[in-house]
Specification:
Mean pLDDT of chain B: 91
Distance between the termini of chain A: 41 Å
Number of strands of chain B: 17
Low-confidence stretches of chain A: none
Oligomer: heterodimer
Number of helices of chain A: 13
Helix content of chain B: 40-55%
Low-confidence stretches of chain B: none
Largest sheet of chain B: 6 strands, mixed
Radius of gyration of chain B: 26 Å
Largest sheet of chain A: 2 strands, antiparallel
Order of helices and strands of chain A: HEEHHHHHHHHHHHH
Strand content of chain B: 5-15%
Structural class of chain B: alpha+beta
Radius of gyration of chain A: 24 Å
Distance between the termini of chain B: 70 Å
Strand order of the largest sheet of chain B: 2-1-3-15-6-16
Shape of chain B: globular
Chain lengths: 297, 468
């Protein structure tokens, strides 16, 4: 190594050091330690006590709420992620048209994504209020329909949250818009020469060319949906009511760590969630070989 | 010129970093009063108050009096509030920056003390005449003294009574001066006081046992039952017919889809959920009892200050909560609020000096600051002598509350290393019962299993820690 190379290496490391320190201190270290803690009883104040696989055994065989929370989370993910994909793609297609004032519409659709989650949760709590909320009042006064109990109703609580999650698809819309801008115009021209109509162009040009973006949004959506927490914490006061119907996995994990001081158990739960997310992501990535097309292939 | 620019850039960068560091650097003193205290060489302590709003203001005024009363300790107060208190204490302690003193609920105290979070306070109890254990109401002391040590100094305690809206009584044709005295009467009154709209929505609720919050533990005890057996240290609710009866009684407030005829006071559970979701903030004029949406409610003695503050026009009365016939009257003092000193507090001796001052009579024999605090927020003082002061017992409404704790055998939450888990699970099971997911018997069997499992786990852990 020449002195110049050595100096470059040193300077490079120095400039990257905030990230390196942050990554090892705030990501790698906690990650590794949480594996260890998952085999212990740990309350953060006293030193951990090694208990082997006990946490995992309890999770699988003794804790009905673990399964319930997993079910709730899967339910939410299975419905909210595809729905959000479809809605955000639809909005992106609409926002991709060349009409005056489009940037205003784009801003309007993106705005909900920058509202802090706590604020939007409180807002939705009012919108979904069964007695005096915006939706039920409108339903009653305009159509004479008795609206459901939304978040207060055991059957409706998860669908309510799914509905609510569609409010903040702005981020995905922006990514779809970027993807749409990337579709070569020549392909549309060729399709038009072949006599393709609007639907045929969407079906055979837009959609295939967007598949890499769909894959990205799908994977990100999955990861976020599995970790769904803030909204339900705010909207149910951390209780997952009614009758555990909104006890999501991350909420139950949080309850175990901070209400019952079971950091070890919560760490085990976190690793189980990691395994589920990893499996889901791998499954999506493997399946993507069949449905994702990259330009130039 | 380029070099000049480079130098200016570096100087600006350095200045910016210094400014950022200066802004972010943790400070020992922020307000002018704290800066002055620091200049005087005082220790600055942090007090985390479990109370917020006007209740915190009352505490703060007394702490400022302490700050003025001597020259070596300055206490800053932080209104942490009840929400997420456990998380905040835990993370602050784990992060090495706990408050020096913290007020919290008895149930939380029990759970955290077993985990080694707090300093034992035996020495100041022994050295302070006002803190003699027998000066306190009988039910209070066991909540802070267990496992051979005193872990907190109790300052306030609570109880519940039946509050009724006299205007709603008049409208319903009931005698506004005669509250229900038996459960049967309570049910009959609830029927008369419940008003539904044409569509069936609840416009005014007569009575609901789990308003303003779940009180299943209390109802079980008022029915004469026992959730927890202190002899065996186990949750034994499913074997107790009175506990089962109390859950079944709560369940009867929701209509039964399988039944042909509904009880007159039963309401559709979804309607109840919609109603309880729609009610406003507890500490505001929108509290459903203040706004007239609920006619009768089981509420605490603090309402004696809350109602004049948030609903000055409300015409209300207070009476003991009805109990089933044949059950001896029992007082209910579920918990207390106690001051604790975290084990890692940086100023334990100064914190103890404050606790001593706060709980002792003022020089010249005036009431203690703790007693004044209870008076300011209308909570029940934990010391019997304080509760008997005329300003408490002489108040016609407050008196009804205080008598519950002074005249009867008082029951409290069990002191266990898993009390929070225990009470959370009771609420969960009550919800399952009122949503008719399970029978009361099944719910209680599930409760016993879950709670005993948790108790076993925590106790095994405590034993292992002691052994190692």
């Amino acid at each position: 190594m020449t002195p110049r190379e050595r100096r470059n290496l040193r300077n490079g490391l120095l400039f990257a050091s905030p990230w390196i320190l942050g990554f090892f201190g705030l990501a790698v270290y906690p990650l590794v330690m949480s594996i260890y803690y998952s085999f212990t009883e740990y309350n953060v104040v006293l030193p951990p006590v090694w208990i082997g696989l006990e946490n995992y055994r309890e999770l699988f065989f003794e804790d009905p709420l673990f399964w319930k929370s997993l079910y709730n989370t899967l339910y939410f993910t299975v419905f909210s992620v595809p729905l959000a994909l479809a809605v955000s793609l639809g909005i992106a297609l609409l926002l991709n048209r060349k009409v005056p004032g489009m940037s205003v519409f784009r801003t309007i659709f993106f705005l909900p994504s920058i509202v802090p989650l706590v604020v939007s949760s409180v807002l939705w709590l009012w919108v979904l209020n069964p007695e005096s909320g915006l939706i039920n009042t409108t339903l009653y006064h305009l159509f004479g329909i008795e609206g459901p109990g939304w978040i207060a109703d055991e059957q409706c609580s998860k669908p309510s949250l799914i509905l609510m999650s569609l409010w903040s698809v702005g981020g995905a819309v922006v990514i779809f818009l970027a993807g749409l801008a990337d579709v070569p115009q020549t392909l549309y021209e060729v399709a038009e020469l072949d006599g393709a109509g609007r639907w045929a162009k969407f079906r055979n040009v837009t959609l295939p060319m967007l598949t890499p973006v769909i894959l990205f949004n799908l994977v990100m959506g999955l990861i976020l949906a599995f970790q769904y927490f803030t909204q339900v914490y705010v909207m149910t006061g951390g209780k997952g009511t009614p009758v555990d119907s909104t006890m999501f996995y991350a909420l139950y994990l949080y309850r175990n760590s901070f209400y019952y001081l079971r950091m070890g158990y919560a760490s085990a739960m976190a690793w189980m969630l990691f395994a589920v997310i990893l499996a889901a992501t791998i499954a999506v990535l493997i399946s993507s070989r069949r449905w994702v097309y990259y330009q130039g292939e | 010129l380029t070099e000049w620019r480079l130098i200016t850039g570096r100087v600006l960068l350095a200045a910016g970093m210094m400014a950022a560091l200066w802004l972010l650097w943790p400070r020992r003193a922020v307000t002018p009063a704290e800066k002055q205290a620091l200049a005087e060489g005082r220790s600055i302590l942090t007090y985390w108050d479990r109370h917020s709003g006007h209740e915190h203001e009352a505490r703060k005024a007394l702490i400022e009096e302490f700050n003025r009363s001597q020259g070596h300790i300055y206490i800053r107060t932080v209104p942490i509030g009840y929400n997420a208190l456990m998380e905040k204490i835990l993370t602050a302690t784990a992060g090495g920056d706990p408050p020096d003193i913290c007020s919290l609920d008895g149930g939380m105290l029990a759970q955290l003390a077993w985990q080694g979070l707090f300093l034992p306070l035996d020495d100041i109890v022994a050295a302070t005449p006002a803190l003699r254990p027998d000066a306190f109401m009988g039910h209070v002391w066991p909540m802070v003294a267990f496992d051979g040590h005193v872990w907190g100094i109790p300052t306030t305690t609570d109880t519940y009574c039946l509050l009724w809206n006299k205007t709603a009584f008049r409208k319903a044709g009931l005698d506004p001066e005669r509250p229900p005295r038996t459960l049967k009467e309570l049910e009959a009154y609830a029927t008369k006081l419940t008003i539904r709209s044409e569509s069936g929505a609840i416009e005014q609720m007569g009575f609901l046992p789990w308003l303003p919050w779940d009180n299943s533990f209390m109802w079980g005890r008022l029915f004469g039952g026992r959730w927890y057996d202190p002899e065996t240290g186990r949750c034994a609710a499913s074997e107790d017919p009175a506990i089962r009866a109390s859950l079944a009684w709560q369940q009867r407030f929701t209509s039964d889809p399988a039944a042909e005829e509904q009880l007159p006071y039963a309401m559709d559970v979804e309607r109840i959920a919609a109603f309880t979701r729609g009610i406003g903030d507890y500490m505001s004029a929108n509290n459903p009892f203040y706004s007239g949406k609920v006619a009768m409610i089981g509420e605490g003695e603090w309402q004696v200050t809350f109602i004049p503050k948030y609903a000055p026009g409300l015409d209300w009365g207070v009476a003991p909560l009805p109990q089933p016939e044949g059950v001896p009257p029992c007082g209910y003092g579920p918990t207390c609020i106690a001051d604790v000193i975290p084990a890692t507090s940086k100023h334990p001796e100064a914190a103890k000096a404050f606790l001593k001052w706060f709980n002792s009579p003022r020089p010249g024999g005036g009431p203690s600051p703790a007693s004044d605090y209870n008076y300011a927020i209308h909570n029940i003082p934990c010391r019997r002598e304080d509760a008997l002061q005329d300003r408490f017992i002489g108040h016609p409404k407050f008196r009804v509350f205080v008598e519950q704790l002074l005249e009867h055998n008082v029951v409290t939450y069990p002191v266990t290393p898993a009390t929070q888990f225990f009470t959370d699970q009771i609420e969960r099971q009550r919800e399952r019962v009122t949503f008719r997911k399970v029978t009361p018997r099944q719910a209680l069997e599930d409760l016993d299993a879950m709670v005993n499992n948790e108790l076993d786990r925590v106790r095994t852990l405590i034993r292992r820690r002691m052994g190692s």
